[in-house]
Amino acid sequence: MAQADQIIAKSADELARLIADGGLSSTEVTTAFLDRIDAVDSQVEAFLHVDREDALKQAGEVDNKRSAGEALGPLAGVPIAVKDVLCDETKACTCASRMLENFRPPYSSHVVNRLKAADAVLIGRTNMDEFAMGSSTENSGFQKTKNPWSLDSTPGGSSGGSAAAVAASMAPLALGTDTGGSIRQPAGFCGIVGLKPTYGRVSRYGLVAFASSLDQVGPMSHDVSGSARLLQAIAGHDPLDSTSLPEPVPDYLSTIDQPIDGLRIGICREHYGEGLSPEVDRAVQAAVDTYIEQGAEVVDVELPHSKYSVATYYIIAPSEASSNLARYDGIHYGYRAEKFDDMIDLYARSRGESFGAEVKRRIMLGTYALSAGYSDQYYNKALKVRRLIRRDFDDAFSKVDVILSPVTPSPAFKIGELADDPLAMYLSDIYTISANLAGIPGISIPAGQSESGLPIGLQLLGPTFGEETLFRAARMFEQRTDWHKQRAALA
Ligand SMILES: NC(=O)C[C@H](N)C(=O)O
């Protein structure tokens, strides 16, 4: 194997350690990943923007710091792909929308600043569903990202570019965002690890808002240690986000290899009914057996309101989106229509010409749900159901440490398969959405493969601030299996 092939096959944790010890320079590592992008991204289309020179400059700075004996951050020299919804003042931030095609943010997001402070190399900006609305990355205003395991399948979404970048070994780490499953679902479809943190664990400052009470930024990687290392760098209180919480951040990496004695795994029987593909069902049952072999106890839990989670989400998320996206009016910033009659016409044309169909659908749904005379019936009622969903989880976590479930009802669907059926697309988030409504953390880990060779994910949900438990429990599975070592066979 050539040196570059060996580098891109390594996990983020191995790379971080090798660079820190001087076994590899960041320039070597970054070059290997940039070359991989050059070789395969024309097939995968995971990136919207890669600046080779800039990435190598960042890598060179890390190498110089190292040779000067200066202290290095925890991600020193490790390349990371960033979803194009997180502001970086040195780059355009498009949210994969024509509306923001030329938008250069005047400031950087908290997480981008944290990555820079951790000495990471920001290698490129990844594709996504427009404004994070979607589950397949087909709603991007620019390109359709392919699943590296099967180029005619979607990578999931909305963080499909980030998931595909990691799965295709174009970056060892990526940042995604998760409003209703947008980290966990693409991680599941692409055979990688993805974690949605507790709401408030990671600052949303500089994250372009979709649904502010649900959005969280989180890590994506090949294995659990990569996500733990990345979360460590971005978690913690930020006074610039009033919803960020001052809870201390544990040292995730130091406990990750400690198995949880007598782990209590909650299973909700309702998760295993109609609509679940037999292949996913089998993989999840096999995962349960793997835990039982390690002394875990399986406990039935009830989540009686989770059947309302998709309906609840598709009122609350579009309502917040309709308000958040009101700022794109063609005047303040963003796309402006060339021809218009008056101000109202300018608003209408600018929005009409630059937003895609799904964004328009969500704005209309949300505006309707919030409108006078309907808000009690829809929005306010959805808030009450959200509270009940949260309460179900509180009850469940008084009995168990984690709740185990599929990530999605089936492995990755084909490009175009659900594109004309928004409801079917919304249902692909059925297992992930309730965690966002409840604000709790969830992790998706590789746990199997379908007969046609597509990855199958496993989800573990934890109580508020239970990320450490999730990492340890996920690592117990990883130590007994090698799904996380499988790589997509791209030429
Ligand atoms: N943004 C997300 O978390 C994904 C979800 N499928 C949505 O379209 O809202």
TrEMBL record:
Keyword Secreted included in the entry's annotation: no
GO biological process, one term: translation
InterPro entries given in the database record: Amidase, Amidase_CS, Amidase_dom, AS_sf, GatA
Cellular-component GO terms for this entry: glutamyl-tRNA(Gln) amidotransferase complex
Molecular function as annotated in GO: ATP binding; glutaminyl-tRNA synthase (glutamine-hydrolyzing) activity; transferase activity
Ranges of residues in domain Amidase: 28-470
Biased composition range(s): Polar residues: 134-152
PROSITE patterns: AMIDASES (PS00571)
Top-level taxon: Bacteria
Pfam families: Amidase (PF01425)
Residue numbers spanned by region Disordered: 134-158
Record's keyword terms, sorted: ATP-binding, Ligase, Nucleotide-binding, Protein biosynthesis, Transferase
E.C. number: 6.3.5.7
Quaternary assembly: Heterotrimer of A, B and C subunits.
Family: Belongs to the amidase family. GatA subfamily.
Physiological role: Allows the formation of correctly charged Gln-tRNA(Gln) through the transamidation of misacylated Glu-tRNA(Gln) in organisms which lack glutaminyl-tRNA synthetase. The reaction takes place in the presence of glutamine and ATP through an activated gamma-phospho-Glu-tRNA(Gln).
Protein name per UniProt: Glutamyl-tRNA(Gln) amidotransferase subunit A
Organism, scientific name: Stratiformator vulcanicus
